[in-house]
Design brief:
The complex is a heterodimer of chains A (157) and B (143). Chain A has one domain. Chain A has five helices and one strand. Chain A has 157 residues and is mostly helical. The longest helix of chain A has 32 residues, at 125-156. Chain A is globular. The two termini of chain A are 19 Å apart. Chain B has 143 residues and is α/β, with parallel strands linked by helices. Chain B has two domains: 1-30; 38-140, Oxidized Rhodanese, domain 1. Helix content of chain B is 45%, strand content 13%. Chain B has helices at 2-25, 44-49, 62-67, 81-91, 110-120, 134-140; strands spanning 41-42, 54-58, 74-75, 98-102, 128-131. Chain B has a five-stranded parallel beta sheet with strand order 1-5-4-2-3. The radius of gyration of chain B is 20 Å and the shape is elongated. Classes of the chains: A mainly alpha (157), B alpha/beta (143). Chains A and B meet through helix 2, helix 3 and helix 4 of A and helix 1 of B.
């Protein structure tokens, strides 16, 4: 029983960490580090456009939308509201992002991912990928743990 | 499964609200049609008309610049930004002149990025425009 409580706490902490990472990643694209200072969404739109995969209009739409999706999903993980939905969205976002980064790299496009605003410009491609795979692994682990809890609850009923 | 879909739809929908708010807040700064807005561009004819009142900047890679460039243009690209900016400011820049930046074609982003850096990083007060159609357009209209 004590072991279960300990494991639950570990999953909780991992959830807070991953949630915090996404809130941070979203906020760096919305407000940067200056309080009450909104960043120009065109900056992130240019980062998306640099991948040369989407029309400009869609890049602008995504630049406005994705940071908020990251923040809201991060909050959902921390407060454990719509938890499974948030995990599914973040998992899909990460896979799409990793895929896009690899395709861009193979096409010889040297992109700044913009994942943590312009803080991440200095990271090498290998570090970007390593960071992304670590977050994917954490999200996948949280997903598996959530499904296990869900099944245990069903069996308990 | 239906609960997962419901949660996903709720989160996706919820994120739309602040995004729409932000789009409205920034509506005057957002260019939905092109990476460089129409007001930041200049046609070849108009830029030519400025004559000696304009400084031309070539934002293409150095090899392209060496092959050929607009007469009098100065090389200033992102690859060698730190190295080329100071000489440009010391030897060529004049506060009263307009600046025309060009890259290879309409679809290239280099000129827009260099123009933005000149405004935001170098903080030049000049009127800075991106050449519509870039070098390709210049070649078509070269007399």
């Amino acid at each position: 029983m004590a072991e279960d409580a300990q494991m639950n706490l570990i999953w909780r902490i991992l959830g807070w960490l991953v949630g915090g990472v996404f809130i941070f990643a979203g906020l760096t694209k919305i407000v940067g580090f200056q309080p009450f200072h909104w960043l120009d969404p065109m900056e992130f739109a240019r980062d998306i456009d640099n991948y040369k995969m989407l029309p400009w209009t869609i890049s602008v739409g995504l630049a406005l939308y994705l940071p908020w999706l990251e923040v809201i999903c991060g909050l959902a993980l921390i407060f454990r509201r719509w938890y499974s939905g948030a995990l599914a969205i973040l998992f899909a976002l990460l896979l799409v992002f990793i895929g896009a980064s690899i395709v861009a790299k193979t096409r010889g496009i040297d992109v700044s991912c913009g994942c943590f605003g312009h803080l991440s410009n200095q990271l090498s491609f290998a570090w970007h990928l390593a960071l992304d795979f670590a977050i994917v692994a954490a999200v996948a682990a949280l997903w598996l743990s959530d499904r296990q809890t869900y099944r245990a609850e069903l069996a308990g009923d | 499964m239906s609960s997962l879909l419901r949660q996903t739809a709720l989160l996706v929908g919820l994120a739309l609200l602040p995004a729409v708010g932000q789009a409205l807040y920034f509506r005057s700064q957002i260019s939905w049609d092109a990476r460089v807005s129409e007001s930041e561009m200049v046609s070849v004819d108009q830029a030519r008309g400025w004559g000696a009142d304009a400084i031309w900047i070539d934002a293409r890679p150095e090899a392209d610049f060496e092959r050929d460039h607009v007469p009098g243009a100065i090389l200033l690209n992102e690859d060698r930004w730190n190295e080329l900016l100071s000489p440009f400011l010391q030897e060529h820049w004049k506060p009263e002149k307009k600046i025309v930046v060009y890259c290879s074609a309409e679809s290239c982003n280099l000129a827009g990025d260099v123009a933005r850096r000149l405004r935001e990083e170098a903080r030049l007060p000049n009127e800075i425009r991106v050449l519509k159609g870039g070098w390709e357009e210049w070649l078509k209209t070269r007399k």
